[in-house]
Amino acid sequence: MFANFYLSPFDHFMKHNLGLRYYGRYVDDMVVVHPERDFLAALVPVAADYLRRELGLTLHPRKIYLQHYAHGVKFLGVIIKPRRIYIESRTKGNFHFAIEQHNRVAEEHRPTRAERVAFRGSVNSYLGLLAHYDTYRLRRLMLEGLSPWWLKAARVDAGLRKVVLKA
Asked: Helix %, strand %, coil % for the chain, to 5?
C-alpha cells in the first residue's frame, strides 16, 4: 500500500506528463510497452531522473530490459506475449523448491501446526498466481510432487486452485 501511495506521482508523470498509453506498475515493478525502441531508450534516463529528483529512488541498472514485444514482456512472474501469457521458469522453479522444502520438513518430523499453516500459505500463494493463467497441467504436476504426508494432511480443491488443511 505504501508503494502505491508513494509512487502515485510517478504513475501520473509517466501516464499523463509523458503520455504513455501502455504503462503499468505493481509495487516496485513496472512495464512500459511502446513500438519504438529509441523512444524507450530515451525514456529510461527521464524516468530515472524523475525518481531520483522527486522521490529519492533509483532504478536498478541490471533490471531494465528493452526488447521487442514479440519476445514477451517479463512482469510479475509471467511472460506476457501478444496472444498468450506464460509462467516464468523462475516462478516454476521457486514453486518446485518450496514443495521440496515442505516435503523435507515432513520427512524429518511430523510438521507442527505452524509448519502446516506455512505449507498451506506457501502452496496457496503459488496456486493463486498460477490459477490466473492456463496452468492446470502445471499445477497438477507440481501437486503430484507433494509427499504422501502432505497429501494425507491436506486436500486440494477440484480446480487445483487451493489447498485446505484437514482437521
From this structure: 55, 15, 30
% of the chain residues with pLDDT over 90: 72
Q: Which residues pair with 156 in a beta bridge?
A: 163
How does DSSP assign 81-135, residue by residue?
ETTEEEE-HHHHHHHHHHHHHHHHHHHHSPPPHHHHHHHHHHHHHHHHHHTTSS-
Which pTM does this prediction carry?
Answer: 0.74
In this model, does residue 73 exceed pLDDT 90?
no
Domain boundaries along the sequence of the chain? 2-66, 88-165
Q: Are 99 and 138 in contact (CB under 8 A)?
A: no
CB 33 within 8 A of CB 25: no
Helix axes 89-108, 113-130, angle to 10 degrees: 160
* Structure-derived torsion over alpha carbons of residues 43, 44, 49, 55, reported in degrees to the nearest 10: 110
Bridging pattern class, strands 73-75 and 78-81: antiparallel
- pLDDT recorded at residue 3: 86
Query: In whole angstroms, what is the distance from residue 164 CA to residue 80 CA?
Result: 30
